Amino acid sequence: xxxxxxxxxxxxxxxxxxxxxxxxxxxxxxxxxxxxxxxxxxxxxxxxxxxxxxxxxxxxxxxxxxxxxxxxxxxxxxxxxxxxxxxxxxxxxxxxxxxxxxxxxxxxxxxxxxxxxxxxxxxxxxxxxxxxxxxxxxxxxxxxxxxxxxxxxxxxxxxxxxxxxxxxxxxxxxxxxxxxxxxxxxxxxxxxxxxxxxxxxxxxxxxxxxxxxxxxxxxxxxxxxxxxxxxxxxxxxxxxxxxxxxxxxxxxxxxxxxxxxxxxxxxxxxxxxxxxxxxxxxxxxxxxxxxxxxxxxxxxxxxxxxxxxxxxxxxxxxxxxxxxxxxxxxxxxxxxxxxxxxxxxxxxxxxxxxxxxxxxxxxxxxxxxxxxxxxxxxxxxxxxxxxxxxxxxxxxxxxxxxxxxxxxxxxxxxxxxxxxxxxxxxxxxxxxxxxxxxxxxxxxxxxxxxxxxxxxxxxxxxxxxxxxxxxxxxxxxxxxxxxxxxxxxxxxxxxxxxxxxxxxxxxxxxxxxxxxxxxxxxxxxxxxxxxxxx
Length: 534
Description:
By secondary structure, the chain is mainly beta. The protein has one helix at 18-35; strands at residues 12-13, 48-51, 54-59, 66-78, 81-91, 96-107, 111-121, 126-137, 140-150, 155-158, 162-166, 169-173, 175-179, 184-195, 198-208, 213-224, 228-237, 242-252, 257-266, 271-282, 287-297, 302-313, 320-333, 339-352, 357-366, 371-375, 379-382, 385-388, 391-397, 400-415, 421-434, 437-455, 458-475, 478-485, 489-493. Mean pLDDT is 86; it is low at 1-40 and 527-534.
């Protein structure tokens, strides 16, 4: 039996007597395990001393228990981990070790932890490392001042700030947990990712070091040279530059600001999708497109919106609202290489603005010449006047109507009273606007008109005329003057109260029932055809 004195050195060992000392502590460990009912539990396995240049057996004068002071190239192991350091205190009775300087813990083939100081408990398999701590797992490096590592669960955590380098990403947070088996970090409080292309900040984030994918909760922002992102829930694949975000989500790709309940975007392909409550804003052109589904490309810039799709062009005095089943925008280039936007709307188009309303089956709007072209039974309403033709073009300037052209079978109607309508028709028509109000109409070719003469509140006659060209002046939405040119022929008849006596020109159709009276009316679809004689 070895005699000991409290807190003094009684055995000094080196390489030549290392195995003798090891045998001594094996006997002590065997005695401890023999008395411990939990000795079969892996968590109760003894910490083994593999090697040390020198060492002493010491006795704690308070507890009377022996412990080892190990110096130089200390090598310890416990289960599947190996611990190396410059010096250590090994407490066999408590199955604990305190290690100093150049700490290195190895677990498996890939996990290494370094630090200046170590407290390790073999009963719980928990290691606490402090001072210049670095955890290395394959390509992932964690730097912090203090880390707690559970060997059994393979979980490392810090609570006083940490920094992780993984691939091109540097991540930092106040607190963090690393699940080694899942290669997954959980960060909280002041989370930040710094990448050569962007900086991301979040309140809470999970990060998979294998896939380099971040999963975030709470207010999250990503700012880069070509993109800004905000959401309160989502994920971002930093390797493939692919993201899906939701909850107050927004993506600004420097050409469009996209919002929606759920957004997907791939920065490598410049392609994205949006779902529910979508808006795509082009602030440079003062437009927003809304809907419940969209896809979009950044280069060349193009998008499609459908499901309750609506286009809005903002104007200081009068914004324009367009609804259609599908709204599509593409970027085209002229011969000089200058790009411009061409927007198309398909199926059931309805337009509302304060001074002008319209409907057609499809239309195209070129931002190059600021012209809206309408096809398939188009109708325009301007104050009291309804204009129809086979196709139309509305020319705008500074986001206000400047003139419109109606091609083939142009027809203008305004209601006089419940029985009578002023009517003008011809082959083609040009209407002129001032301050977004129609003030002049020219009809060219095969002109015909029915116009009621009014004196105060009384209708005193009906003028029916045919000619080659008609010029009409409008004020406050009412036809005030009509001039007929090139062989006009006409007759003025007295008014009649009989509906049969109030004739209409061929092609007459009064469509006020489907005229949008407010913005929400553009979403009302008429299921039946308008009776041409109505």
